[in-house]
């Protein structure tokens, strides 16, 4: 299953990159209501990339109409390991390779996150693929994860907008 999301931000692309790679913002993301516990496993430059690796215990709300076999595969809590590797370079555009694995869930999420200048601000492009090796119900599992991912991306977009308004822009006004 493929997911493509596009989010516009009214700040320069390099500032959005700096936001996405700031420890304070990572902590704010990890303080979401569905995150029970987290650790930042790696945060910094590594082999020409900026790497953010987070392990989080997340709460998953199962929908009523999920097939029984999927209910048996999944619990209401999962340990999720996400790794984002940002390519460092010249210019205003940035690209990251992203991957997620969840304990006890036979599916993998991978893709890219792009930031590039766009009109008066920047565009954040998320292109993700969800794959499952489970026969017969793997497609349903990917659809369920995809729905959860889209909700999470919308929530994170809203958090970023609020963070930009309350922290980034507030800091500029004080300067």
Rg value:
17 Å
CATH architecture: 2-Layer Sandwich
Instruction: Choose one word for the global shape.
Output: globular
CATH superfamily: START domain
**Amount of beta strand:** 35-45%
CATH topology: Alpha-D-Glucose-1,6-Bisphosphate, Chain A, domain 4
Q: What count of domains describes the coordinates?
A: 1
CATH top-level class: Alpha Beta
Give a quick account of the main beta sheet: strands, pairing sense, barrel closure.
Answer: 7 strands, antiparallel
How would you name the oligomeric state of the polypeptide chains in this document? Answer: single chain
What would you call the structural class? alpha+beta
Order of helices and strands: EHHEEHEEEEH
With strands numbered from the N-terminus, the spatial order across the biggest sheet is 1-7-6-5-4-3-2
Distance between the termini: 45 Å
- Strand tally is 7
Share of residues in helices: 25-40%
Q: Would you kindly provide a written description of the structure presented here, covering whatever features stand out?
A:
The chain contains four helices and seven strands, in the order E-H-H-E-E-H-E-E-E-E-H. Helix content is 34%, strand content 43%. The protein has a single domain, classed as START domain (Alpha-D-Glucose-1,6-Bisphosphate, Chain A, domain 4). The longest helix has 37 residues, at 138-174. With 175 residues, the chain is α+β, with helices and mostly antiparallel strands. The protein has helices at residues 13-20, 23-30, 68-73, 138-174, and strands at residues 2-9, 35-46, 49-59, 77-87, 94-102, 107-118, 121-132. A seven-stranded antiparallel sheet has the order 1-7-6-5-4-3-2. Strand 6 (107-118) and strand 7 (121-132) form a beta hairpin.
């Amino acid at each position: 299953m493929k997911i493509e999301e596009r989010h516009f931000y009214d700040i320069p692309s390099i500032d959005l990159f700096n936001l996405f790679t700031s420890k304070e913002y990572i902590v704010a993301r990890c303080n979401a209501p569905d995150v029970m516990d987290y650790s930042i496993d790696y945060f910094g430059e590594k082999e020409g990339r900026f790497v953010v690796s987070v392990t989080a215990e997340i709460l998953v709300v199962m929908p009523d109409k999920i097939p029984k076999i999927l209910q048996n595969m999944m619990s209401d809590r999962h340990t999720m390991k996400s790794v984002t590797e940002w390519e460092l370079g010249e210019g205003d555009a940035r690209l990251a390779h992203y991957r997620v694995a969840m304990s006890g869930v036979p599916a993998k999420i991978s893709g890219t996150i792009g930031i590039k200048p766009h009109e008066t601000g920047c565009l954040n492009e998320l292109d993700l693929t969800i794959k499952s090796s489970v026969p017969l119900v793997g497609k349903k599992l990917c659809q369920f994860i995809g729905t959860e991912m889209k909700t999470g991306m919308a929530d994170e977009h809203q958090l970023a907008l609020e963070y930009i308004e309350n922290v980034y822009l507030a800091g500029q006004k004080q300067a």
